[in-house]
Design goal:
With about 220 residues, the chain is α/β, with parallel strands linked by helices. About 30% of the residues lie in helices and about 10% in strands. It has nine helices and seven strands. Helix 3 runs parallel beside helix 4. The chain is globular and about 55 Å long. The protein starts with 17 loop residues before the first strand and ends in a 12-residue tail after the last strand. About 10% of the residues are buried.
């Protein structure tokens, strides 16, 4: 785990105090050893045991995204802060429920889009908001693989199994999309006017305002 002092942060310390496997404590112990975690770190054989550990402040979820909602909700309900890997959930309804729960319990909840805090990303946002590179109207990003999914994964692997939320939409769209979203969303004016298409039976389009957070609210470094 990266020492916070590498980014001039001295008021906190990261320590792995436990890990859990859904299958056995032995697998969790193997993970701790392979990652050179402190010998004092505890290995649990279930997630239910993990969230009961009072020494844990925040839990990093790196399970397949088909189980992110269940795992994250378990942590939040136990009063733990959560950093959840991508894709955050398999649909918007799950994400909304997690956010509502975190807010109600005053807990930190974040999708692990670490590129958002790269110095390069921060500099790109500055170039946009300062107008240095002019107005940005379109961004094109691409991530391509030459593999045949059927040949590489078959039909049961989580990467292609629809019952496990498999497929490119949740598993492969994030690498190119995740770095772009903060740039496109957080560099917009705090309020944008837009006109909607009239609904059937209406003769006039309605005009409303969609509030977006100004770029000044974006943290300059990782939390």
């Amino acid at each position: 785990m990266l020492d916070p002092s590498t980014r001039d942060v001295s008021d906190l310390k990261h320590t792995v105090v436990a890990a859990a496997s859904s299958s056995s404590a032995e697998r969790a112990q193997k993970f701790l050893q392979e990652c050179n975690c402190p010998s004092s770190a505890v290995a649990y054989g279930s997630y239910a045991e993990l969230v009961k550990d009072k020494n844990i402040d925040i839990i990093y979820i790196a399970t397949p995204h088909s189980h992110h909602y269940q795992n994250a909700m378990l942590c939040l309900e136990a009063g733990k802060h959560v950093l959840c890997e991508k894709a955050f959930t398999v649909n918007a309804a799950q994400a909304k429920k997690l956010v509502e729960t975190a807010k109600a319990k005053n807990l930190f909840l974040m999708e692990a889009v670490w590129t958002r805090y790269f110095p390069l990303s921060i500099q790109v946002r500055k170039l946009i908001t300062d107008g240095t590179i002019g107005s940005v109207h379109r961004v094109i990003a691409d991530l391509s693989f030459g593999d045949s999914p059927e040949e590489k994964y078959g039909t049961d692997h989580r990467m292609v199994n629809m019952d496990l939320a498999g497929g490119a939409l949740l598993d492969r769209k994030l690498p190119p999309a995740a770095p772009i979203h903060p740039q496109s969303h957080l560099t917009q004016p705090s309020k944008i006017q837009w006109a909607s298409i009239p609904s059937p039976g209406s003769s006039k389009p309605s005009t409303t305002r969609n509030p977006l957070p100004p770029a000044s609210r974006l943290p300059s470094s990782a939390p």
